Amino acid sequence: MSAPAPPSAGAFPSPPGGFAPAPPPSTRRNAELLLLAAAAVITTVSLFLVEASQEQSITWDIAKYGLAYLALFAVAHLAVRRFAPFADPLLLPIVALLNGLGLVLIHRLDLADQQTAAYNSWATPSPDANQQILWTALGTLVFITLLIALRDYRTLARYSYTLGLIGLVALAIPALLPSAFSETNGAKIWIRLPGFSVQPGEFAKILLIIFFASVLVAKREIFTAAGRHVLGMEFPRGRDLGPILAVWIVCIGVLVFEKDLGTSLLIFSTVLVMLYIATERVGWLVIGGGLLALGFIFAYQLFGHVRVRVETWLHPFDDYNNTGYQISQSLFGLATGGLAGTGLGSGRPSQVPFAKTDFIVTTIGEELGLIGLAAVLMLFLVFVVRGLRTALAVRDSFGKLLAAGLSFTIAIQLFVVVGGVTKLIPLTGLTTPFMSYGGSSLLANYALLALLIKVSDAARAPAPVRKKEPAPIADAQTELLRRDGGRPDAGPLT
Questions:
Q1: What is the pLDDT of residues 173-205, one digit of tens each?
Q2: DSSP character string of 10-31
Q3: Residues 91/32, Cβ–Cβ less than 8 Å
């Protein structure tokens, strides 16, 4: 039996040019949708576990939270699919899961507050989880609005000085207002009006990141100018230190007049990292670290509230019933959680003051244990790493610095929060991104997510295909035609 004949050349015709067309680029939106569905399942199951642990009957509240959560992120997914189709498919699902877990913990603390009120015959407090759902809806609206309105993130660089000025004014307003309209727990960081309150520093950090990304690109020659070499490191010239000194003065002003250690540390550290990324010079880090240490020594010597923070950090049990109560209860809660935690709904996280806001990490550590807390931190780590990958992949310098600054501000904020509740560093009053209760933080972080997704979309989008220009007439192929209109090799006419 003879072997089958090979297929003829015409069996698999090649397209014009000899190459098959390239497959369409993958947007990975279906993978994003699958991950969002997994986040919705985890959130809903966690809500059921909380209700079961508290011996509550399964009510429509669970369905309300679950359906609202699912609807909000389904709309957000559709917006990404339409207006940023090539964005990183992990960013939105990670935020959805973090936000969902934060909602679960807030609902769990609501149940504890209701039990405490019933035991003491107090009025039943309104659940904060309802308010958090509302803030999540508004944050999703901000997210979608930015995706639609911001066709090209590079247009932000044109208005960088205006945005930077708005950020500085937003930082300064609470310091100028009377304490009754701006102060909470000793820090003047709010704008409080009847029926309305906002923490402008949350939005100011994003505006200042945009400003410094633009300035570092436009004035790069100033920051990279040759300076003195000391111990193998190149330090900038003295006359080029103006920008970082200005940032230092602003951050010290925030620390002094608003008593806000967290925001001043966050802004200065983020700008310092962006300076290093833009110049690749360790000298800027050394100078910035020196200025940071000098500023805190200066503040410690002159201002009592800074000394109280430091003393509470070093000796929290010396004044347990007053200044040390919060951090002491946090340490007790983390110790109670141990490795695997007490289980959702089975701990006593309400014993920690501000468990829904500044100390929600303690709630995670107590009820989910070290394993659960490590998993949450891993989610943040993946988010930051994907943001930095976006910074490496995007083609323009402004996009690189913007994505790096947005990613690092999440990393620095998380370090400050976790360091504070575990007594690694003094308490600062910052909230955990996407998880803590509160509108200003949630809205600002959803705006941050929208900017990062727009940069990611530009970084992952395929390069535009240039139209092939027609060949000049002199280089075009010629054919010999017969008078009757046929070609010489076409055979006899019939």
A1: 998 888 888 887 778 888 887 777 899 999 999
A2: TTSPPPTTSSPPPPPPP--HHH
A3: no
